[in-house]
Amino acid sequence: MTPLDHLGVPAPETPDWHVTAFLGPRPGDDGRPMLDAVRDLRARILFDHGRRPAFLRADGTHADDQDLDFGAWHFIARRSPGGPPLGYIRLSTPDTGAPFQSRDFLGDRCYEELLAAEGFGAADVFEHSRPVVEHRARKLGLGLHLNALAIGAAHHLGARAMIGTSGTKDGQDRFHERFGFRPVRGTRRYVPQYTEDVVIMLHRVADGAGRHHDLVTRLRDEFPVIAAAGAAPLLPVPPVRRTARVTPTGTASPDRETWRPVLHTAAELDALLASGNVREVHDTIDDQLTELVRSREPQCRDRVEIERRKREQLAGAAPWEYGTWAWYPWSGRLVHVLPREEFWLVRTDRNRGRIEWPDRRRLFGKRIGVIGLSAGNSAALTFALEGIGGAFRLAGSDGFGLSDLNRLRGGLHDLGVTKAVLSARQMSEVDPYLDIEIERAGLTPETIERFFAGGLDLLVEGCDTPWVKIAAREYARDLGIPVVMDGNDRGVLDVERFDREPDRPLLHGLLGDVKSVDVLDLTARARTELVLAMVDAGRTSPEPAASSGEPGRTLSSWPRPASGVALGGALCGEAARRILLGLPCESGRFHTDLGQQLHPSRNVYAEGPP
């Protein structure tokens, strides 16, 4: 049973793909042009608009030349036989002749000890590469199809086990676990080429292929037909343009898609600066080192002593070599920051006295989901500022328009991006080390399982769609995830501790036993009535109550001023911190009514100052 079954929603089907395969030539044999085309395709997708700069040559072409390509199986996927290539995966066999990536990663001795401990010899083990898929095909399940095909091919060719390196930033390791792979303890480490932590994953053929065993079995049986058909020629891929895209008026077109900064070491700076993609350089590392010394030892005031301790911190490195250089593709800014742990220590230093370092470290280890990025934007940005959470999943499909500037922090130059991209950018500009994923399509029956996959420690819900509100809570309750919600009006904060109360009724029972499948298709009137029941209309302030039937008539949407959204972000932050640190925070609905707070009766100096 999948998590979608209890909603009555069928799981999304994987579309049919046209996959061709060929066995790579040996060094010196014919077939090199096809191999070169595959390498360029793979490197271009891995480059990912600058996320992994190591895959771009100085001349603007892409490079990922590996000896392991010779003699390996290469699979290329398209939507139709004559269509452009959209994805790729490689399968290396014991006959490939070059060391596997996992052997290079571990070293010969550790690799052989691992196989021996698992009861395998080198001839038993195949290796598949990470699937690389164009952005437009990722939501269609192509990565799943390619991964299943590589595993199925290995099963057909006689593998007893499979091994491979897996990235962790986008949950690729959790993706492989769904195919029966398991991470090998003690193998996770950062790999600069991929700009993320990488871990070794191992799969025993005898144990099956996990949740996708049936798909792997089907593709195992189809592999001989695919292999016999041979490769189709790859269309040449034009080289990437290093200059900004130009509109008919001759002005640069803004980047509305990227949201992840690209983290560089000092050794990679020359190539980046030579690329012409850096517009501004911000290097305040000396001041940051001073703050680091002061945060560790607040009593240290002597300038000579501070400088001595800064030199000690650098340990012989030049200041420009120390720490991380974060490049923000959407603005062209290159920013120099302290290494991750030191950066977090200094950035949250002013929390000291309220949140001490052990608790700050605990908070940075939490993964938080945010749904609905109008009200949710304020919460997500508050979390990033305060250091509540180190990994985030943001879901929202709405675009950022002019009318959103009444409550969302952004500039006119941000108009046209989605709220999910805007929020992720704002958070990353506060902290480039945050691990942020976005669900551009928002939460739908097709994306909800993916959003919750891998687990969340907390869910923030701030959307207006009844189906999303209910379905998200159904998932959260099933998975034991606490939920907080900003209701905006009268400072409403909802807290549902599903982590402690697995049988708690959704939304405090205000809707009775309604299920998400019951509210997929509602009339405008029914939707309004349901929303009013959710917010407990009898407790709303007069203005929203009077305008409840006006959205779509005299109002373009629900009224939501910036002051209420900002308050909601603060309330969600306080509740989230308490929940994640195990402090008192019970389920319920709480009002922080600014109108009541500013009533004359609450003025403690009504009769004059003391």
Element layout with pairings:
Elements lengths: L17 E6 L8 H16 L25 E6 L8 E6 L8 H6 L1 H11 L6 E4 L3 E2 L1 H4 L3 H15 L4 E7 L4 H6 L4 E2 L5 E3 L4 E9 L8 H17 L32 E3 L4 H6 L5 E4 L1 H12 L6 H12 L9 E5 L4 E5 L2 H8 L9 H8 L2 E5 L3 H12 L4 E5 L23 H12 L4 E5 L8 H5 L5 E4 L4 H14 L3 E4 L5 E5 L27 H11 L7 H5 L15 H20 L6 E4 L2 H4 L13
Parallel strand pairs: 4-6, 11-13, 14-15, 14-17, 15-16, 17-18
Antiparallel strand pairs: 1-2, 2-3, 3-4, 3-5, 6-9, 7-9, 8-9, 10-12, 12-13, 18-19, 19-20
Helix pairs in contact: 5-7, 9-10, 9-11, 13-14, 13-19
Q: Summarize this, please?
A:
By secondary structure, the chain is of the alpha/beta class. It contains 20 helices and 20 strands.
Please characterize this protein's 3D structure.
33% of the residues lie in helices and 15% in strands. The protein is α/β, with parallel strands linked by helices. The strands form 3 sheets. Strands 1, 2, 3, 4, 5, 6, 7, 8 and 9 form a 9-stranded mixed β-sheet that branches. It is globular.
